[in-house]
Every structure is written in C-alpha cells, then in structure tokens.
Amino acid sequence: MFSRHELIWLTGSGWDAALERALPGQHAAILQWRREDWPAVVRRADPGLVPGQVSLGMPLPPSPAGVKGRIALFAADCDVARRSLPLTLADAARAAPERWRAALDLLVLIQFSMPLRTYGSLAMQAITGQPYLSATSDIDLLFFPANTQALRIGLSLLEQHAAVLPLDGEIVFPSGDAVAWKEWISATSKGARVLVKDAGAVRLATVENLLATLEAA
C-alpha cells in the first residue's frame, strides 16, 4: 500500500512503460527524470486503477510565466525500484531561500518528538536542484501525530511559526487520513466536519471520528 506524497523511484522497465504511455510533449521531462534518477510522487489513485498499480505524478518546475505543470503517470508495483517517505524538513531546509533560513532552522531545531516532513515546491527543489520556489510559494509540511497530546503540541507549534513563515500542509492520522491543518484549527465546533484525503478518495469526516483514530492507535 502506497501513501500520498511518498517518493517512488522506478526501474528501467517502469520508465520504459511510462514513456510508451506518455504524450510526445512529455518525453523530454520523463527522460530527464530517468537520467537524473529523480523520484516520482504518489498521488491519489485514479478511478478504476488496476490492483497492483500506483498513481504517480512528476511535478515540473514552473514555467517562465509561473505556470505549474505535472505529468500524471502510473506504474506497476513490480516496477518500483525503491520508495521513501517524503523528505524530512531538516533535509529539505537546505534548499530554502535566505529569507526563510533563520526561522526555518529554528523550526527544525524545536521539532522535539514530532519530526516534520515536506512535499511540494520546497521538497522538489531540494530533490532536483531545479527552481521550484517563487516569491509566493508555501512551505508544505506533513505532521504525523501519534496521540491527541502530540496533535495539540504540533498544532501549537505550527500556528506559532506560521506567523513568520508561509506554512501550509496536512495532519496525517495513523489511518493515513490527511486533513489540512489550517482547516482543522478552524473546525472548533462540536460535530464539525473537515475535508479528508486518503490514498483513494476525498470525503468529509467529523473531527470526533478522526480524534478517535488517535486514541485507538
């Protein structure tokens, strides 16, 4: 089972299959990914995806006009050479621009027992060395609380540092369900529902039901 934002390196046959299915205008980017041995990123499964396959994306650097692109592809499980969790914040921070550096280094230092991981533009710039970040980019973080206390501490930490950094991202519950942490903070009323993303779907769930998954973990 693969999780959203996971990093996937393909075998030679996996890249061959991706090229065969790609549009002609996508070949140059796919060949570069293969040559540089960069990973694709797991995305939500396409409807009707055959068992034994995983949906992937190749986020491309923004065009000179600032337009973001992504090549959608899929691969057979047997064509996955290796896989990895998303980059830790500590590993991705080296690609951060100077304007973020001091505040980001402080956040890295005080993560305590709640290591943060990254996806999106900062992660892709750290992985590829290509210019993904712009003046309007966010720092997309993944936060994996193990219990309700870790959730409270983590949200407090993110809120505090969002005052000086353009933080965004998701809480990932032990079930794999993910919720935007800013939406979670706003959902304070009893019975409130939040948008949940998992490996195969998007749905609404109550805050109480998601908290119960922490207690059961």
From TrEMBL:
InterPro entries, per database record: Holo-ACP_synthase, MdcG_C, MdcG_N
Every Phosphoribosyl-dephospho-CoA transferase MdcG N-terminal domain range: 4-84
Alphabetized UniProt keyword annotations: Nucleotidyltransferase, Transferase
Membrane recorded as keyword: no
Keyword Signal among UniProt keywords: no
Pfam families: MdcG, MdcG_N
GO molecular function list: nucleotidyltransferase activity
Domain of life according to the entry: Bacteria
Phosphoribosyl-dephospho-CoA transferase MdcG C-terminal domain ranges (all copies): 88-206
NCBIfam families, sorted: malonate_mdcG (TIGR03135)
Full protein name: Malonate decarboxylase holo-[acyl-carrier-protein] synthase
Naturally occurring in which organism (per UniProt): Massilia psychrophila
Name of the coding gene: mdcG
